[in-house]
Each structure stands twice: as structure tokens, then as C-alpha cells.
Amino acid sequence: MLTWTFFDFSHWSLEKLEAASGQKAEASHPKTQRAFLAGRIALRHLLQNQNLSLDIVPNKKFGFLELKNCYGSIAHTDQVTVAAVSSLPVGIDIENCQRKVQQVLPKIAGPDEIRKIDSFQSEIAGKVQDKGLYLWTAKEAFSKALGLGLREGIQDLEVDLSGTSPYRGETCLETPLSLKAPALIFHVVGNYLVSLCFEKGLGDVVKPPQPYPLEPQ
After folding, report:
1. Angle value at C-alpha 159, between 157 and 164, nearest 5 degrees
2. pLDDT tens column, 77-86
3. Which of 6, 16, 97, 191 is surrounded by the fewest CB atoms within 10 Å?
4. φ and ψ at residue 38, rounded to 5 degrees
């Protein structure tokens, strides 16, 4: 099982997000509060559709989300959030297609990975301004799927974007979660690039997202 959703919460007030999530915002900054609640709403939307428990508990040591009988991941940028749920570890990331990351890629990727990204080919490549964004989002999604988040060690996660989708991830690190055959795919939704990392045994094709209502109910 693997499913994901895209939620544009730009028209949702903090009060509407609190009501829909059943939670009170805890962060001090309004922007952070809204993003946190939107992520919880998106994840609960997926769990409800799969008739799964709605209990969501952050792992105390590593911070990844612990769910009952499944795995989940959340990411957000601007005023949009994405969430994924799978029967095996999963990671998701999202960035604006116009973001430029070449200057910061060395923080998360090795010289060979950065050099190879110039030859990356994809049917959606023309929609992304900086090809390095594929590597950036893939690394983050891979790291989340392994339970590392954005902690040290992300440089030791190797992403191979050669060939065709789904692409491959490899690591020799001992990680909190594991995948036998990490697979990576990309989707473009509106102005955003979404990267998903999942167990290849679940299949080579991931269906488009289940959209969450754009307007508050």
C-alpha cells in the first residue's frame, strides 16, 4: 500500500486548520503553526481513507512519525503540504519548481552525484528550473524514509538518477528504518516538485495524489 496527497492550505485560516485537525497549534510563529496543522490534516486524510488508526506520534529519538500498522511522512513549503502513507517505510519532500539549490547541494551530495545531475533526463525536467532540485528533494525523501530526517549522514545516502523512473537509492549506514530496494520517483503538481521514496517491491508506478479540498469546509 502506498498513497499520497497534496494540500494547498493558502486559503485556510489558523482557526479553520485547528478545527479540521482537532488540534491546537503549539508553535510560536503563525506560519509554522499553519504548516504543522496542515501536515497533520493531510496525513489524517490518508489514514482515514485507508481505515487506519489516526494516532500520530513523533519518535522521541529521531523525530520520524510513528503510526500504527503503517508508515507516514509529511513535507511542506510555501503554503502547500504533502503527506504519504505506506505499508513500508516512506519519505516525501516538496519544493517550488523555481527554487535554485546549486549553491547548497554540496551540503547534502557528493561531487559525483552533483556532476551526474547535469545529464538527468525526465519528461518533467523542463518544468524545474534547477536540475539540482531533483537531487535535493530525492535526498530528503530518501533520508526521511530511513528515519533520519535531515540529520547528519544525508551525504552518505547515494541517489542514482540515471536510467528511467523509478530511480535508486543506496546506503551502507545503519539507519532507524530500512528499505530492501529504495525507489525514487518525481511528480510535478502545479508549481511544485514532489519526490517520493518507497520500497520498490510495492510497484514501479505511484498513482497521482488524492487531493485534499482546496477550500475550508
Report:
1. 160
2. 999 999 999 9
3. 191
4. -60, -40
159 vs 162: CA distance, rounded Å: 9
Residue 160 buriedness (CB in 10 A; 0-12 / 13-18 / 19+): middle
Most distant pair of Cα atoms in the chain: their distance: 48
The CATH number linked to 158 is 3.90.470.20
Q: Are 46 and 83 in contact (CB under 8 A)?
A: yes
C-alpha cell read off for 45: 486524510
- Residue 164, exposed/middle/buried by CB under 10 A (0-12, 13-18, 19+)? exposed
Mean pLDDT along residues 190-201: 93
Helical H runs in the chain? 14-21, 30-49, 111-116, 132-145
Q: Is the pLDDT of residue 131 over 70?
A: yes
93: containing domain: 2-202
Q: Is residue 215 part of a domain?
A: no
Which single residue is written with the C-alpha cell 510535478? 188
Q: Give the least confident one: 23-27, 48-52, 133-137, 173-177.
A: 23-27
Q: Is position 60 within any domain? A: yes
What three-state secondary structure class fits 23? coil
Q: How many domains does the chain have?
A: 1
